Amino acid sequence: NSILSSFAEVFKSNTIYQDEIVNIHVQRLAEIDNILPPNMTFLAITNTTTYKYEFISHSFQYATGLNREQIYSEGVQGMISRVHKDDVKVWLTALQDLMTFCMTEVSELDRKRMNFQYNYRLQARQNKVINIVENLIPLVLDDFGKPVIGLGYCTIYDDGAPQPIK
User: Fold this and answer.
1) Is 134 helix (H, G, I), strand (E, B) or coil?
2) Is the pLDDT of residue 123 over 70?
3) pLDDT digits (tens, 9 = 90+) for 62-95
4) Which residues on neighbouring strands pair with residue 154, listed in sequence order?
5) What whole-number distance in Å separates Cα of residue 88 and Cα of residue 81?
6) 109 burial class (0-12, 13-18, 19+ CB within 10 angstroms)?
7) Which residue, 18, 51, 158, 166, has most beta carbons within 10 Å?
């Protein structure tokens, strides 16, 4: 899959990361998730070294109409395959530009203080496209200071009408 290959190139790391800090975040988010009502914003912890989701809040299914367990099993590839075909190349280029900026212009100390924000459309079902704005906060950096574990706050907005990717 060339889309997954492009995504993998952006987030390429020599580290497979799994650590107690991720488990602590997952545990705390799961506790909060149990008390929050379903809404149009969902949280997800992405591990770009394994292309898996460590956590996806229950609002994911409510906001997107997609099956949360299916996305857990498909991992990042499942979500990437649903990025709207007209947006995917621009979206991947934006991610590459953000990562290049992060790694060349931001000190390692400040990288965990960053908040990346971008938008894209997701093909939620055959006849349903949704707009997402995602705020991604790096939680863990690899041995080279590259973000590898991120906490995403994803909000569904509008009705899937084309929007410029920012």
Assistant:
1) strand
2) yes
3) 999 999 999 999 999 999 999 999 999 999 999 8
4) 42, 134
5) 9
6) exposed
7) 51
Tell me the C-alpha distance between 39 and 32, whole Å: 13
Tokens of 126: 């055959």
- Specify the residue for token string 């898996």: 52
- ∠ CA 70-97-102 to the nearest 5 degrees? 95
Look-up: residue for tokens 């109409």? 65
| CA of residue 129 relative to chain centroid, distance | 18
Between CA 19 and CA 38 the distance in angstroms is: 29
**Which three-class secondary structure state does DSSP give residue 115?**
coil
Residue type, 106: V
Amino acid occupying residue 142: D
**pTM, 2 dp:** 0.89
